[in-house]
Design a protein that fits this description.
It is a single chain. With 373 residues, the protein is an alpha+beta fold. The protein folds into three domains: 287 residues, no CATH class; 38 residues, no CATH class; 36 residues, no CATH class. Helix content is 46%, strand content 12%. The protein is built from twelve helices and twelve strands. The protein has a four-stranded mixed beta sheet, with no helix packed on it. Strand 10, helix 7 and strand 11 form a beta-alpha-beta unit. The longest helix is centred in the C-terminal third of the chain and has 26 residues. The two termini are 54 Å apart. The N terminus is likely disordered.
């Protein structure tokens, strides 16, 4: 049983200001770090995500991973959204929807799927203002916001009207799956860099007579003054052979293939496909179209998830506390019209309409025709 020492919530103060926030751990990390952090986060008696989230802060610096994350999030942020009351657009909330604050809140909602949890503390007042709660301080198993990232003393958030914590208790986010690939990729890039350093330039080999020390000193001076590329001095009488590993990896393609494979795994984890981000040698129009359809399905799921969060009683009550008229309405994402899909759909619908009655509202809703309500 998890035990904690909870203090009474103090709504008159800003909770984030009471936390002892520490910098992310930027020390060297490897697969053992990931496994240890995962074990700590999944502990039954003393679960703690601080090490895991420090690791996440590190792996999101990966260029490919940050790119595919931005692609998935932007696919939702760039969709048209409006507030609907009584079946019609409500202009009273338009200014909020087009504000940077609302866009940042939507981004935080999307990031919840990556990290597992997110938290926002809304600052009471006339204008919408908020602070993001550091994820390392949110303890979903205890239902508190901890003062220390590794502690169990904190403020219960379940009954706080201005604190919104999102995510499932046991969810550790998609970054959990991406972290090993990013760590392996970092090692692969290091190996590739070493390979280039060793074999990117010709190796200079100078042979000298073992008894001629004067010549040896002069040759050493020549090598030191003629550049920094790999050089060797060996006695002429010695039997020397360099094993450079280039017979099976003459152009460094081994490391490149490894890094590409890791990038593809991260793309599949975040986007569900690879072809919408990078192209393969075997790619074609049909394959790319299938991958694009797969990404559309994930985007549709993200839109449904984001809309559900925006329309949650918690968020609507928060907006209402700032004076927004959201009591009898809900947020709606505008429908995307896939022309190729609709061409096929309308042909089928015409056939169906000849056999059974089709409600008028169906045509307005399916094909996004305005004025149907």
């Amino acid at each position: 049983m998890i035990k904690s020492h909870k203090t009474e919530p103090r709504q008159e103060t800003i909770i984030v200001n009471e936390l002892n926030i520490r910098s992310a751990d930027r020390s060297r990390k490897d697969i053992l770090t990931w496994r240890g952090a995962l074990t700590s986060a999944e502990s039954v008696y003393y679960p703690n995500r601080s090490r895991l989230y420090d690791l996440y802060e590190d792996v999101v610096l990966d260029g490919h991973l940050s790119g595919v994350i931005a692609k998935r999030i932007d696919a939702v942020l760039n969709k048209e959204i409006y507030f609907e009351t009584g079946g019609k657009k409500d202009q009273a909330v338009e200014e909020l929807i087009h504000s940077l604050a609302f866009r940042d809140i939507m981004r935080t909602i999307m990031e919840t799927q990556l990290w597992g949890i997110s938290g926002i503390e809304f600052i009471p007042g006339k204008e919408l203002a908020y602070e993001n709660i550091p994820r390392k301080h949110i303890k979903p198993e205890l239902g508190i916001i901890a003062f220390e990232q590794t502690g169990t003393d904190g403020i219960p958030y379940a009954d706080l009207e201005n604190v919104w914590v999102m995510g499932e208790t046991k969810d550790l986010g998609l970054l959990l799956k991406c972290a090993p690939y990013s760590l392996y990729k970092r090692g692969g890039l290091s190996d590739w860099s070493q390979y280039i350093e060793l074999f990117g330039q010709p190796v200079r080999i100078i042979k000298y007579d073992s008894y001629d020390e004067q010549t040896k000193l002069e040759l050493r001076k020549i090598l030191e003054e003629s550049g920094s590329s790999l050089s060797m001095m060996i006695p002429r009488q010695a039997d020397f052979e360099i094993k450079d590993g280039k017979q099976n990896n003459s152009d460094g393609n081994l490391q490149l293939s490894f890094i590409k494979a890791l990038n593809e795994e991260m793309s599949i984890t975040i986007l569900g496909n690879t072809e919408t981000t990078t192209s393969s040698y075997s790619t074609g129009y049909a394959q790319s179209k299938v991958h694009l359809e797969q990404q559309y399905e994930i985007t549709k799921s993200d839109i449904i998830y984001t809309a559900a969060m925006l329309n949650s009683p918690k968020f609507l009550s928060i907006l209402q506390s700032y004076g927004y008229p959201v009591t009898n309405g809900h947020f709606v994402f505008a429908k995307d019209m896939d022309i190729d899909y609709l061409k096929t759909r309308v042909a089928i619908d015409k056939e169906v309409a000849q056999m059974v009655p089709v409600a008028e509202s169906y045509w307005y809703d399916t094909y996004g025709i305005p004025g149907g309500k």
